User: Fold this.
Amino acid sequence: MLDLVVVGAGIAGLIAGNRAAELGCRVTVLEAGTDRYLCNSRIATGSLNFAHSNPELPPAQLIDAINADTEGHADPALAAAIAAVAGRGLRWLKDNGAQFVRQEMQGKMSWMLAPPRSLVPGLDWRGRGADVLLDVLAERLKARGGELMTGTSAQSLLVKEGHVCGVSAQTSGKTVSIDARNVVLADGGFQGNAKMVGRYICARPEKLVQRSAGTGLGDGIRMASEIGARLVDMNRFYGHLLSRAAFQNASLWPYPTLDSMTNGSILVGSDGNRLFDEGLGGITLSNLIAEMDDPTSTWIIFDEEIWTTTGYDEVVPANPHLIEAGGTVISAKTIEELAAKAGLPAGPLASTVAAYNNAVESGRGDQLVPPRSLGRRFGVIRNATERVPVRPVRRAPFYAAPLAVGITCTMGGLAIDVNARVIREDGKPIPGLYAAGQTSAGLEGGPIAGYIGGLAKSYCTALLAAEAIAAGQDGRLS
Ligand SMILES: Cc1cc2nc3c(=O)[nH]c(=O)nc-3n(C[C@H](O)[C@H](O)[C@H](O)COP(=O)(O)OP(=O)(O)OC[C@H]3O[C@@H](n4cnc5c(N)ncnc54)[C@H](O)[C@@H]3O)c2cc1C
Assistant:
């Protein structure tokens, strides 16, 4: 019998499979896709930050970084467990074929999988670091005696006397049972499942741009919840603000993102009024906008000064890429003319801009409704406002760009313990069942939708699961 069957061959699944095989386990990894299957890991940009920090920092500093980014929302024991494995995990990745360069991302030095993607609009993944790493990990799995079964989609968990003992899967039109002492669910979250997104995240999933491979269908979460797993933070996702034209134009996702532009400008709804504190950061704002009745009714308003400063701030800067790639940017000599061209009400928009400018110039963002953070605040928010100066909107021409929210991956999913074992509602682990990567939860989400880095979460939870399985956590390895 297999020691381990892994569901999903993204970075979490392949790392879990490789590490377990390296430690002597008999492993099969199931992957629904075929050939050069797409998944979020393959198309990831490849920036390997751990809560916006270098994974090599001492664990205590990494725990602080997680707490700052999530405002203390992350499960403390789980945060400590992944902080403890982060530096060693980075070395393991390097020893197992991952190539990195050091590159500045959003004002910070970051480990970037090499070769890095080119910083152009649209998707650029073929032959880039994350794509290469998946191929290397698949090869290493085979070299370690493991098997990668592509075209095989896990459907349900096999359970005997309360222990998970394999999966039932569809392959070549047939249903097969794959027996194993342990199962790791690593199928990448549920961002690609509109029904689940509609149930847990927002009422109008069709109004979010799919900024992902679309392969995370929530199968692992469904299978585990059928046998009593606890689900946490299901309402939060990692996403970015995009041009609304990204619905029709593939050159406008995953880049350019408009997070910095929004952080440094005015965000308004179709009534011309402000909606949220623009300094909350793109991930938090994406979550808040997604909750609106119509997430496609928001605009950013800025001026020439912002366009020629903040406009250059992103990885793939909005200026000039947003326009060159076909995004909509309306310009006008006055705010009233801008409102007319954008179809926004002129009076309310002019009042919004005037009140905003007064507050910014007098340093009294707190007097606006909603308030506008002008300086340092907390976590991810602090990162945004530290980096992106807030300027008044005064220098013609004035601009309006229609926004959309891009959903990249869900943050919530299966609650896990410090060994990545899936937890039941009563807090006890389900014997034989583990989760890793975006299917696992407990580290992200909360009121500000705190995000610690999908790749970091994936490799750390995968190593926790594999090492616990190899150590026979359930006392069931032969
Ligand atoms: C455009 C983009 C850029 C990103 N950039 C970064 C970045 O720079 N840094 C960072 O930290 N994170 C980044 N991320 C997020 C990161 O890619 C993810 O957090 C991470 O790859 C998740 O890995 P995973 O293994 O959990 O899921 P995935 O990579 O999605 O893998 C899951 C696999 O499971 C398979 N699967 C699904 N259902 C089944 C089933 N029933 N049976 C069998 N197989 C199944 C899928 O086909 C898929 O191959 C980015 C994401 C995107 C989309």
